[in-house]
TrEMBL record:
Organism per entry: Elaphomyces granulatus
Subcellular localization: Cytoplasm, Cytosol
Role played: Catalyzes the conversion of xanthine monophosphate (XMP) to GMP in the presence of glutamine and ATP through an adenyl-XMP intermediate.
Subunit structure: Homodimer.
Pathway entry: Purine metabolism; GMP biosynthesis; GMP from XMP (L-Gln route): step 1/1
A single GO cellular-component term on record: cytosol
Name of the protein: GMP synthase [glutamine-hydrolyzing]
Length: 541
């Protein structure tokens, strides 16, 4: 039963573009772009042996990657990729790999490296640009990130676009549908990049545009049922955020109460959060949920810890302890009942951007940062408890939201701002005490309510109130006070990788300050953080 493949794989139902990943930070964007065109795409490591595939792709994209093709350790594609006789598009490293395969002296280290914008000019032959550039401006702004380059045109190819520093910015084969480009069409900085990828997939590969989010739901449910079998039980952690709720809802649709959701109340949740999540998940969505109140253990353990990383580590570790205890209880209950299956599976329901850095080809795609959601828990549950991993993590935030709507999740939940795993503990700067958590929680409640009242919630990527434990002097009712400072933070962001502070009008900020100082005892100052990311981060710790 273990790891048995489901009967119907999406690549058997839909025309599928195969993305071979050489470890670029943007590889996942390629599959995402394909989904935007209603085309199914599957990403596999670049070293995939192609004769092992049980299906045929309609086209192959070779991604970018951090290596240089001529390095000893550089990864290489199975040479059979050209024998499949399907269209090929090489991007950056993918371009260099394609050229290197044809002849090793085709690629060299460049003297003029290109990072950032470049102006691309598509070449016209008898008045026409190549069909890869159909519908695009002759001059387009593209985004580059490379040090190596083609030394010469590989045999059988011609140039279809140039930039000032790249004589071979895009090349195409004279007779076959084989293309290679030095820039990255998958990033939003490349204007018209989407159209180029669509030209490749739709016009050149002839992929049928039949994939939909609804079909994704059906597919995923079928996949879960096949994997888990008629009796298997699955365990998963939920936080009340949209990602884990969507994952839990899919599990519930697939296997009902054989999915066990566990939520740990670490004492640092938002106001009324535990009750609200319980209500939504159990009453509204029918999910089998256990809420564990471990707030005392967390708050006790946090005493005296001031370093942000130590706080995160403590909370992560404690979470795992509590989760393990709970697993034991669920397992004992299952063993003592006439329920057949033991818990065999652990659900990993995180978003793609959370895992980009840790799952790309051969581990790190040049590690950027690790993420609390993908930290120790899955490893412990799989290696430590012998559970098998179910992964639902190929989608991006906006896609997860669309999926959530498809599954009937309430709009408020679908649009909910992200909330960090350690919660308010990292929004109280320095030492966490129950009093400080309560003050930050109350301030956050008022701030978010006022944002909602103004109708601004959905325009903001993430907003919250944090507490600065250094105090300031104030005057209240003619009396001198010496109290905490609340820091408000609200950012606009496309992908949470970069962000700007939200431009509230000053009247609104003044109203928030009044409400918080009036309603929340212990606060006499409110400030607004106007730092962008970078150099700031979204959270303060
Ligand atoms: N490492 C290669 C270079 O510097 C490819 C880079 C990439 O794919 N972005 O040219």
């Amino acid at each position: 039963m273990a790891n048995k493949k489901p009967e119907i794989e999406p690549h058997e139902l839909y025309d599928t573009v195969l993305v071979l990943d050489f470890g670029s930070q943007f590889s996942h964007l390629l599959t995402r772009r394909m989904r935007e065109f209603s085309i199914y795409a599957e990403m596999l490591p670049c070293t995939q042996k192609l004769s092992d595939l049980s299906w045929s792709p309609v086209g192959i994209i070779l991604s970018g990657g951090p290596y240089s093709v001529y390095e000893e350790m550089a990864p290489h594609v199975d040479p059979a990729f050209l024998d499949l006789n399907v269209p090929v598009l090489g991007i950056c490293y993918g371009m260099q790999e394609l050229a290197y395969r044809l002849s090793k002296d085709n690629v060299v280290a460049g003297t003029a490296r290109e990072y950032g914008h470049a102006d691309l000019k598509a070449t016209r032959v008898s008045g026409h640009v190549d069909r890869l550039f159909e519908g695009l401006e002759d001059n387009m702004r593209v985004w580059m990130s490379h040090g190596d380059k083609l030394a010469k045109l590989p045999e059988g190819f011609h140039t279809i676009a140039i930039t000032r520093n790249s004589e071979f910015a895009a090349i195409g084969h004279e007779t076959k549908p084989i293309y290679a480009i030095q820039f990255h069409p998958e990033v939003t900085h490349t204007i018209g990049g989407n159209q180029l990828l669509k030209n490749f997939a739709v016009n050149i590969c002839n992929a049928k545009q039949s994939w939909t989010m609804a079909s994704f739901v059906d597919q995923t449910i079928a996949r879960i049922r096949k994997l888990v079998g008629p009796e298997g039980q699955v365990l998963g952690a939920v936080s009340g955020g949209v990602d884990s709720t969507v994952a839990a809802k899919l599990m519930h649709e697939a296997i009902g109460t054989r999915f066990h959701a566990v939520m740990v109340d670490n004492g640092c949740l938002r106001l009324n959060e535990a009750e609200q999540v319980k209500k939504t998940l159990t009453e509204h969505l029918g999910i089998n949920l256990t809420v564990v109140d471990a707030s005392v253990q967390f708050l006790d353990g946090l005493k005296g810890i001031t370093d942000p990383e130590k706080k995160r580590k403590f909370i992560g570790g404690k979470f795992i302890d509590i989760f393990e205890e709970e697993v034991k209880k669920i397992e004992d209950a299952a063993a003592n009942s006439d329920r057949a299956g033991k818990i065999e599976w652990f659900l990993q329901g995180t978003l793609y951007p959370d895992v980009i850095e840790s799952i790309s080809f051969k581990g790190p795609s040049q590690t950027i940062k690790t993420h609390h959601n993908v930290g120790g828990l899955p490893k412990l549950m799989t290696e430590g408890h012998g559970l098998k991993l179910i992964e639902l993590r190929e989608l991006f935030k906006d896609e997860v939201r669309e999926l959530g709507r498809n599954l009937g999740l309430h709009e408020d939940l679908v649009m909910r701002h992200p909330f960090p795993g350690p919660g308010i503990a990292i929004r109280v700067l320095g030492e966490v005490t129950p009093e400080r958590v309560e003050i930050a929680r109350q301030a956050d409640f008022h701030f978010i309510n006022m944002i909602r009242e103004k109708g601004l919630y959905n325009q903001i990527g993430q907003a919250f109130a944090a507490l600065d434990p250094s105090r300031a002097v104030g005057v209240m009712g003619d009396k001198r006070v010496y109290q905490y400072i609340i820091i408000l933070r609200a950012v606009q962001t496309y992908d949470f990788m970069t962000a700007n502070s939200y431009p509230f009008d000053s009247d609104f900020l003044a109203e928030v300050a009044t409400r918080i100082t009036n309603e929340v005892a212990g606060v006499c100052r409110v400030v607004y953080d106007v730092t962008s990311k970078p150099p700031g981060t979204i959270e303060l710790e």
